[in-house]
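dumping this here before i forget
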Amino acid sequence: MKQPTPEPKRSRLAWLKEKADKRLLKLLLWQLVTAIITGLIVWRVFVWYQTNTIVFHSPIKIEWFAPIRLVNRLDYHQEVETTKTLAEIKEKALYNYQHPETLPKCDSSSMQQIDPQKFWDIIWDHESTSGKNNTVGSLAWKCEQKGGWNEIGYSPSTGFCFHSKEEAQLFIPFYVSKNGYGKTLNELLCFYNTGTYSISCPYSDNNLSLAN
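structure:
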Protein backbone atom coordinates (compact mmCIF):
# COMPACT_ATOMS: atom_id res chain seq x y z
CA MET A 1 0.00 0.00 0.00
CA LYS A 2 1.22 3.42 -0.89
CA GLN A 3 2.05 5.53 2.15
CA PRO A 4 0.53 9.08 2.32
CA THR A 5 2.90 11.82 1.61
CA PRO A 6 3.72 13.60 4.90
CA GLU A 7 3.03 17.36 5.05
CA PRO A 8 6.15 19.39 4.80
CA LYS A 9 7.26 20.81 8.14
CA ARG A 10 6.84 24.56 8.53
CA SER A 11 9.97 26.45 9.01
CA ARG A 12 10.52 28.28 12.30
CA LEU A 13 10.46 31.57 10.41
CA ALA A 14 6.94 30.87 9.10
CA TRP A 15 5.74 29.92 12.59
CA LEU A 16 7.12 33.10 14.08
CA LYS A 17 5.50 35.14 11.32
CA GLU A 18 2.09 33.57 11.96
CA LYS A 19 2.40 34.18 15.69
CA ALA A 20 3.38 37.83 15.10
CA ASP A 21 0.37 38.31 12.81
CA LYS A 22 -1.98 37.01 15.55
CA ARG A 23 -0.42 39.32 18.10
CA LEU A 24 -0.75 42.26 15.73
CA LEU A 25 -4.43 41.44 15.12
CA LYS A 26 -5.11 41.28 18.88
CA LEU A 27 -3.29 44.58 19.38
CA LEU A 28 -5.31 46.26 16.62
CA LEU A 29 -8.57 44.95 18.08
CA TRP A 30 -7.60 46.17 21.55
CA GLN A 31 -6.67 49.61 20.22
CA LEU A 32 -10.00 49.79 18.35
CA VAL A 33 -12.00 48.90 21.46
CA THR A 34 -9.98 51.39 23.55
CA ALA A 35 -10.54 54.14 20.98
CA ILE A 36 -14.31 53.49 20.95
CA ILE A 37 -14.56 53.54 24.76
CA THR A 38 -12.42 56.69 24.99
CA GLY A 39 -14.55 58.37 22.33
CA LEU A 40 -17.75 57.54 24.23
CA ILE A 41 -16.30 58.91 27.47
CA VAL A 42 -15.15 62.13 25.78
CA TRP A 43 -18.57 62.53 24.16
CA ARG A 44 -20.37 62.05 27.49
CA VAL A 45 -18.11 64.60 29.15
CA PHE A 46 -18.74 67.04 26.31
CA VAL A 47 -22.53 66.62 26.58
CA TRP A 48 -22.38 67.02 30.40
CA TYR A 49 -20.28 70.17 30.11
CA GLN A 50 -22.87 71.81 27.85
CA THR A 51 -25.31 72.05 30.77
CA ASN A 52 -22.99 71.89 33.79
CA THR A 53 -19.87 73.54 35.06
CA ILE A 54 -17.30 73.10 37.81
CA VAL A 55 -17.06 75.66 40.60
CA PHE A 56 -13.94 75.69 42.72
CA HIS A 57 -14.09 76.94 46.29
CA SER A 58 -11.29 78.08 48.49
CA PRO A 59 -10.79 75.43 51.23
CA ILE A 60 -10.15 78.21 53.74
CA LYS A 61 -12.18 81.40 54.12
CA ILE A 62 -10.84 84.09 56.43
CA GLU A 63 -13.13 86.82 57.75
CA TRP A 64 -12.20 89.58 60.16
CA PHE A 65 -14.57 90.70 62.89
CA ALA A 66 -14.20 93.28 65.60
CA PRO A 67 -14.17 91.49 69.00
CA ILE A 68 -16.54 94.07 70.48
CA ARG A 69 -19.05 96.30 68.74
CA LEU A 70 -21.09 98.94 70.57
CA VAL A 71 -24.40 99.61 68.85
CA ASN A 72 -27.76 101.03 69.73
CA ARG A 73 -30.07 98.30 71.04
CA LEU A 74 -32.85 99.27 68.63
CA ASP A 75 -30.45 99.36 65.68
CA TYR A 76 -29.04 95.97 66.64
CA HIS A 77 -32.52 94.49 66.84
CA GLN A 78 -33.29 95.94 63.41
CA GLU A 79 -30.07 94.46 62.01
CA VAL A 80 -30.90 91.00 63.38
CA GLU A 81 -34.44 91.17 62.03
CA THR A 82 -33.18 92.31 58.63
CA THR A 83 -30.68 89.44 58.39
CA LYS A 84 -33.41 86.98 59.38
CA THR A 85 -35.84 88.49 56.89
CA LEU A 86 -33.32 88.33 54.03
CA ALA A 87 -32.72 84.64 54.76
CA GLU A 88 -36.47 83.98 54.67
CA ILE A 89 -36.85 85.94 51.43
CA LYS A 90 -34.09 83.93 49.78
CA GLU A 91 -35.73 80.66 50.84
CA LYS A 92 -39.12 81.79 49.52
CA ALA A 93 -37.62 83.05 46.25
CA LEU A 94 -35.79 79.73 45.74
CA TYR A 95 -38.90 77.73 46.60
CA ASN A 96 -41.08 79.76 44.22
CA TYR A 97 -38.48 79.29 41.48
CA GLN A 98 -38.38 75.51 42.03
CA HIS A 99 -42.16 75.21 42.44
CA PRO A 100 -43.75 77.71 40.02
CA GLU A 101 -47.50 78.08 40.25
CA THR A 102 -50.20 80.40 39.00
CA LEU A 103 -50.98 82.95 41.68
CA PRO A 104 -54.65 83.52 42.51
CA LYS A 105 -56.22 86.76 41.32
CA CYS A 106 -56.54 89.39 44.01
CA ASP A 107 -59.14 92.05 44.55
CA SER A 108 -57.65 95.39 43.54
CA SER A 109 -58.85 96.93 46.83
CA SER A 110 -56.61 94.56 48.82
CA MET A 111 -53.48 95.14 46.74
CA GLN A 112 -50.48 97.02 48.09
CA GLN A 113 -51.10 100.76 47.80
CA ILE A 114 -47.45 101.80 47.64
CA ASP A 115 -45.56 100.60 44.59
CA PRO A 116 -42.29 98.99 45.83
CA GLN A 117 -40.54 99.85 42.56
CA LYS A 118 -41.46 103.52 42.87
CA PHE A 119 -40.30 103.52 46.50
CA TRP A 120 -37.05 101.86 45.41
CA ASP A 121 -36.44 104.38 42.65
CA ILE A 122 -36.89 107.31 45.07
CA ILE A 123 -34.65 106.08 47.89
CA TRP A 124 -31.97 104.87 45.45
CA ASP A 125 -31.95 108.31 43.82
CA HIS A 126 -31.94 110.12 47.17
CA GLU A 127 -29.17 108.05 48.72
CA SER A 128 -26.69 107.60 45.86
CA THR A 129 -28.15 109.28 42.76
CA SER A 130 -29.09 105.81 41.56
CA GLY A 131 -25.59 104.45 42.14
CA LYS A 132 -23.75 107.33 40.47
CA ASN A 133 -22.53 109.06 43.63
CA ASN A 134 -20.70 106.60 45.87
CA THR A 135 -18.33 109.07 47.52
CA VAL A 136 -15.42 107.87 49.65
CA GLY A 137 -16.55 107.27 53.22
CA SER A 138 -20.23 106.89 52.35
CA LEU A 139 -22.19 103.79 53.31
CA ALA A 140 -22.34 102.70 49.68
CA TRP A 141 -18.55 103.05 49.37
CA LYS A 142 -17.89 101.17 52.63
CA CYS A 143 -20.13 98.29 51.58
CA GLU A 144 -18.47 98.16 48.18
CA GLN A 145 -15.06 97.84 49.87
CA LYS A 146 -16.39 94.85 51.82
CA GLY A 147 -17.80 93.21 48.70
CA GLY A 148 -21.37 94.13 49.68
CA TRP A 149 -23.96 96.60 48.45
CA ASN A 150 -26.02 99.39 50.02
CA GLU A 151 -26.73 102.30 47.72
CA ILE A 152 -30.18 102.85 49.24
CA GLY A 153 -29.06 104.09 52.66
CA TYR A 154 -30.73 101.33 54.64
CA SER A 155 -29.77 101.22 58.35
CA PRO A 156 -26.71 103.52 58.09
CA SER A 157 -26.22 103.58 61.88
CA THR A 158 -25.32 99.88 61.88
CA GLY A 159 -23.28 100.01 58.66
CA PHE A 160 -25.50 97.30 57.24
CA CYS A 161 -24.57 95.85 53.86
CA PHE A 162 -26.61 93.66 51.57
CA HIS A 163 -24.76 90.88 49.82
CA SER A 164 -25.83 92.26 46.44
CA LYS A 165 -28.15 94.70 44.72
CA GLU A 166 -30.44 91.80 43.88
CA GLU A 167 -30.77 90.96 47.56
CA ALA A 168 -31.75 94.56 48.33
CA GLN A 169 -34.33 94.47 45.55
CA LEU A 170 -35.86 91.39 47.15
CA PHE A 171 -35.89 93.07 50.56
CA ILE A 172 -37.58 96.38 49.64
CA PRO A 173 -40.98 94.87 48.65
CA PHE A 174 -41.03 93.12 52.02
CA TYR A 175 -40.09 96.38 53.75
CA VAL A 176 -42.89 98.26 51.97
CA SER A 177 -45.40 95.55 52.78
CA LYS A 178 -44.43 95.47 56.45
CA ASN A 179 -44.08 99.20 57.12
CA GLY A 180 -46.24 100.81 54.46
CA TYR A 181 -49.62 99.17 55.04
CA GLY A 182 -52.26 101.88 55.20
CA LYS A 183 -49.64 104.61 54.74
CA THR A 184 -48.97 107.03 51.93
CA LEU A 185 -45.75 107.05 49.94
CA ASN A 186 -44.63 110.26 51.67
CA GLU A 187 -45.30 108.81 55.12
CA LEU A 188 -43.24 105.72 54.34
CA LEU A 189 -40.40 107.84 52.94
CA CYS A 190 -40.35 109.89 56.14
CA PHE A 191 -40.37 106.72 58.21
CA TYR A 192 -37.49 105.30 56.15
CA ASN A 193 -35.41 108.41 56.74
CA THR A 194 -36.31 109.38 60.31
CA GLY A 195 -38.02 106.35 61.85
CA THR A 196 -41.21 108.37 62.33
CA TYR A 197 -44.31 108.54 60.15
CA SER A 198 -45.07 112.08 58.97
CA ILE A 199 -47.37 113.51 56.34
CA SER A 200 -44.33 115.16 54.78
CA CYS A 201 -40.70 115.81 55.60
CA PRO A 202 -37.58 117.10 53.83
CA TYR A 203 -36.79 113.58 52.60
CA SER A 204 -40.21 113.11 50.98
CA ASP A 205 -40.11 116.65 49.62
CA ASN A 206 -36.74 115.97 47.97
CA ASN A 207 -35.12 118.64 50.15
CA LEU A 208 -32.15 116.41 50.94
CA SER A 209 -29.99 119.16 52.44
CA LEU A 210 -32.35 119.21 55.43
CA ALA A 211 -32.98 115.45 55.57
CA ASN A 212 -31.20 113.02 57.90
